[in-house]
Amino acid sequence: MKNMKRILLSTVVGMVLGVIPAEARLGENVAQCQERYGAVIERRPASVAESDPQACIFSKSGITAYVEFRNGVAWRIVFRMPGMSPTEAETLLKANLPDGGWGPALKFNGQDFRLSADRRRISIYTPTKASKEVSSLEVASRDYGAANYAAYSIKLVQALGTVKERKTGKSLDGF
């Protein structure tokens, strides 16, 4: 029984230590991310207009990090890893520990949502059911969340504006 506990403990510690070198942090610039990960392996268009035009993708120790910058500073990071456990996600969250720490997780629709105590950062952990599927942890500034919401709202209004008006049926008197 003691050997099983030691094996389990060393496995968990090994997994946690294996994750630590791959911790990008909000507020880092591209050069700091490159020091942490190595060269950028791919560039993609950013997801919101307020971001710098291109996001960078890094990969190290089995973790892929998609990093969006604003004014040259990371304001959104999405970590992706096959079968990322809650312990590994927690380690990555600790790397982005804001003043006062993270609040408790709000579990909704299979995801864990957190807000930092200083209310300036948000995180979303999306686990998978199978160990070979890719899990993700998104850490972003609240400013990014507001910009993303504004962009989504504009798209929604545009989409609703193109919906054809439906003919109404009989009126429902009394309702």
How would you describe this structure in keywords?
175 residues, alpha+beta, eight-stranded antiparallel sheet, 4 helices, 32% helix, disordered N terminus
In DSSP terms (H or I, runs of 4 or more residues), the helix count works out at: 4
Helical residues, percent: 25-40%
Strand order in the largest sheet: 1-2-3-4-8-7-6-5
Give the number of DSSP strands: 8
Give a description of the structure.
By secondary structure, the chain is an alpha+beta fold. 32% of the residues lie in helices and 29% in strands. The chain is built from four helices and eight strands; from the N terminus they run ααββββαββββα. The chain has helices at residues 2-19, 30-37, 86-95, 142-161, and strands at 42-45, 54-60, 63-70, 73-82, 106-108, 111-115, 121-126, 134-141. Strands 1-2-3-4-8-7-6-5 form an eight-stranded antiparallel β-sheet. β6 (111-115) and β7 form a beta hairpin. The longest helix has 20 residues, at 142-161. It is globular. The N and C termini lie far apart (67 Å).
Secondary structure layout plus pairing:
Blueprint: H1 2-19, H2 30-37, E1 42-45, E2 54-60, E3 63-70, E4 73-82, H3 86-95, E5 106-108, E6 111-115, E7 121-126, E8 134-141, H4 142-161
Antiparallel strand pairs: 1-2, 2-3, 3-4, 4-8, 5-6, 6-7, 7-8
